[in-house]
Amino acid sequence: MRRFLVAFVLAIVAGTALWAQAPRIGVFIPGVREGSPIYDTMAKGAERLAAEISGASIKIFEAGFNQAEWEEKLTSFVASGKFDIVITSNPSMPELVNNVSKSFPKQKFICLDGYLPGNPNVYSALYNQLEQGYVTGYLAGLVSISGMKGTNPDKKIGMIIGQNYPVMDKMIIPGFMQGLKAADPAFQLDIRVLGNWYDAAKAADLSRSLYAAGADIILPICGSASQGAVKVAQETGKYLVFFDDNEFARAPDNILGCAVLHQEDLAYRSLKAAIEGKLPFGKADVVGMKEGYIEFLNTNPAYIKNVPEPIRKKVDAAIQSIKSGQLTFQVPSL
């Protein structure tokens, strides 16, 4: 009996050491990595952690654009039994992860950019993109009514989205619209739906149509298809604002501002906490500017060059109001 107990304890210690010293990390990308900053930065965060731990392994799987296949592909990915923890990111993934976890009750998941409380095998973190949308919309509105070169008095801003989904409809668009209205209540938002996340030619056509209809600034949230919007902005001398990553280098004369998600840091810290046994599985967090995971890049040289100082000061004041808690945004039920 004593030998059995000793062997049992040693097995537990060995298992704990294996998890702590040589974790096996699976990265499930519901799309493709190239041209998708939110997925690329998640993968970078996982790669950074794996590089710090001797013997750690990592596999990155790209599931492609067909959402109907994501659950089946996630199931196959998990069924391989090769991962101690699987990290993914997308507002649509919590439901799929929840379904798959029922068949694999020992599998641990981290779901970023999503919200799923109550599953003891899943930790999720949702970005408060009302904040991100507000600051970006406020900047776009202030520039549009400033009279600077490339703007017009129509008080119309454009938006190109890959598709409609709950976070887009309940957080990003309302936040962006609220920011526009804070600049001037008369603003209108013209939204065009691309229908996918990769068709740059169609995104270019939609951009031309928006600019022709009176929009002087466009927010493209359409994955790699945004290259079409960049091309047209450069051709017409119009402007863009961007979400999720630092995109200034793509068109430094046309991109006015970028509100980024620090997904790499969130992926890295979440995985590290999981490996150290400190991640609260079963919990769903909401993170934003105050926590440092949403940032408006207000010190970038292109931003300082393109945007007049009086506008920059107003944007800075809005950011400070959010960080201090003076200006708050209640995350809706998704």
TrEMBL record:
<dbReference type="GO" id="GO:0005886">
    <property type="term" value="C:plasma membrane"/>
</dbReference>
<dbReference type="Pfam" id="PF02608">
    <property type="entry name" value="Bmp"/>
</dbReference>
<keyword id="KW-1003">Cell membrane</keyword>
<keyword id="KW-0813">Transport</keyword>
<comment type="similarity">
    <text>Belongs to the BMP lipoprotein family.</text>
</comment>
<protein>
    <submittedName>
        <fullName>Membrane lipoprotein TpN38(B)</fullName>
    </submittedName>
</protein>
<keyword id="KW-0472">Membrane</keyword>
<keyword id="KW-0564">Palmitate</keyword>
<feature type="domain" description="ABC transporter substrate-binding protein PnrA-like">
    <location>
        <begin position="24"/>
        <end position="325"/>
    </location>
</feature>
<dbReference type="InterPro" id="IPR050957">
    <property type="entry name" value="BMP_lipoprotein"/>
</dbReference>
<keyword id="KW-0732">Signal</keyword>
<dbReference type="InterPro" id="IPR028082">
    <property type="entry name" value="Peripla_BP_I"/>
</dbReference>
<keyword id="KW-0449">Lipoprotein</keyword>
<dbReference type="InterPro" id="IPR003760">
    <property type="entry name" value="PnrA-like"/>
</dbReference>
